[in-house]
Design goal:
The chain is of the alpha/beta class and about 400 residues long. It folds into three domains: about 140 residues, Rossmann fold (3-Layer(aba) Sandwich), CATH 3.40.50.720; about 180 residues, NAD(P)-binding Rossmann-like Domain (Rossmann fold, 3-Layer(aba) Sandwich); about 80 residues, ACT domain (Alpha-Beta Plaits, 2-Layer Sandwich), CATH 3.30.70.260. The protein is built from 13 helices and 17 strands. It has a seven-stranded parallel beta sheet with strand order 9-8-7-10-11-12-13, with helices on both faces. Strands 1-17-14-16-15 form a five-stranded mixed beta sheet, covered by helices on one side. A five-stranded parallel beta sheet has the order 3-2-4-5-6. Strand 4, helix 3 and strand 5 form a beta-alpha-beta unit. Helix 1 runs parallel beside helix 11. The longest helix is centred in the C-terminal third of the chain and has 21 residues. It starts with a strand and ends with a strand.
């Protein structure tokens, strides 16, 4: 498949789910043709829209299935304006040479701040007392109310968010222990533990900060909850698949845990004002929030700014830095040159065949960049003259070719 880069005002960008308006402004200022929707689109309408779209921007409520991607004749990139990309068929997108980007770090502070709020809330029973007053019950008591100073916070997953929570909690006088499957440098006085079981036994409150994968699915169940200290608390702002909800409900029913706070769930509504039910709603010592940990105006603006600039850079230079499915190549802007991008299956001999085409046509290569991953090869070639149609067709015919893009 060959794509000859069009003028910017002919490049169509579709933004869904009300991503921060700064994204629309940035992309429009770059002279792209941008269409903006405040909500996700029904699949039928999305299939119609995506036929003429070159770049798609979305959040977590839009499902990009193989059926949708089969309709995407011109799509070159998808920007996920959030951390998760589990609603995108990554395998199909890769096979169709669609580059996927996400923005995993811009909401780190927002999530961390909510976790600190939940820690204090659980130890002080703030939500429980507030609901009593909402129900016209005055009950001034020190029961279920504790200082967090001197308590031990156990962090499972010491990445960007987990380590930020660690620093903030330590400044409030907490002792920090953490467990991670990879060696991580501790910040401040945080201490690593060798096993998650060790962490669960020692912590007064456990906060989960792990990605969604096979090893973390259903990671916290009856066995793990039974290991936790009696009266301790559990917080999950990571992924809904990590905690087995019936087992958590049982631990709360038996009063083995002092409470819990959840921001993510195994099944979440895709529309506003939808009815949401969970067996945890029966407990007044459980705080439930609707997946809002990273949803602050500051975080959403930062995500929109960074993702928009990332997409502009990819469209205009071919750079795939921080892509989640493509070989990562950072490319300079070349003046008075022509850039050819060749995307192919990662099989031996492709580069020599490409260069043979250039050599036979006496094309001088000014610069060339090659990067591969387990499935794809990404070759960017800067040449000093424009390729005619016969040469581009020859590049398309190289065995293993998925897409050839003439950038400028």
């Amino acid at each position: 498949m060959m794509l000859i880069n069009q003028p910017r005002n002919k490049m169509n960008v579709l933004l869904l789910e009300g991503v921060h308006p700064i994204a629309f402004k940035i992309l429009q200022n770059e002279q792209f043709n941008v269409e903006y929707f405040k909500k996700s689109l029904p699949e039928k309408l999305l299939k119609e829209k995506i036929r003429t779209i070159h770049v798609l921007g979305m959040r977590s409520k839009t499902t990009i299935s193989q059926e949708v991607l089969d309709c995407a004749e011109n799509l070159i990139a998808i920007g996920s304006f959030c951390i998760g990309t589990n609603t995108i068929d990554k395998k199909c997108a890769t096979e169709k040479a669609v580059v996927l980007f996400n923005e995993p770090y811009s909401n780190t502070r927002s999530v961390s701040e909510l976790v600190i709020c939940l820690i204090i809330d659980l130890f002080r029973s703030i939500t429980r007392q507030s609901m009593k007053l909402h129900n016209k019950i005055w009950e001034k008591t020190t029961a279920h109310s504790f200082e967090i100073r001197g308590k031990t916070l156990g962090i499972v997953g010491y990445g960007h968010i987990g380590s930020q929570v660690s620093v903030m909690a330590e400044s409030l006088g907490m002792n920090i222990i953490y467990y991670d499957v990879q060696d991580k440098l501790p910040l401040g006085n945080a201490r690593p533990v060798s096993t998650m079981k060790d962490l669960l036994k020692k912590a007064d409150i456990v906060s989960l900060h792990v990605p969604e994968n096979k090893s973390t699915k259903l990671m916290i169940g009856k066995k793990e909850l039974d290991c936790m200290k009696r009266g301790s608390y559990l917080i999950n702002t990571s992924r809904g698949s990590v905690v087995i909800i019936p087992d958590l409900a049982e631990a709360l029913e038996k009063k083995h845990l002092g409470g819990a706070a959840l921001d993510v769930y195994p099944e979440e509504p895709h529309t506003q004002r939808a009815v949401f039910e969970t067996e945890l709603q029966q407990f007044d010592n459980v705080i439930l929030t609707p997946h809002i940990a990273g949803s602050t105006l500051e975080a959403q603006r930062m995500i929109a700014e960074k993702m928009s600039k990332k997409l502009v850079t990819f469209i205009t230079t071919g750079s795939t830095g921080r892509s989640i499915n493509f070989p990562e190549v950072e490319l300079p802007v070349m003046m008075n040159k022509h850039r050819i991008i060749h995307i192919h299956k990662n099989i031996p001999g492709v580069l020599s065949k490409l260069n043979s085409v250039y050599s036979k046509n006496k094309i001088n290569i000014e610069g060339q960049y090659l990067k591969t991953n387990e499935t794809l090869g990404y070759v960017v070639t800067d040449v000093d003259q424009k390729l005619d149609s016969s040469m581009t067709e020859a590049l398309v015919k190289v065995p293993g070719t998925i897409r050839v893009r003439i950038l400028y």
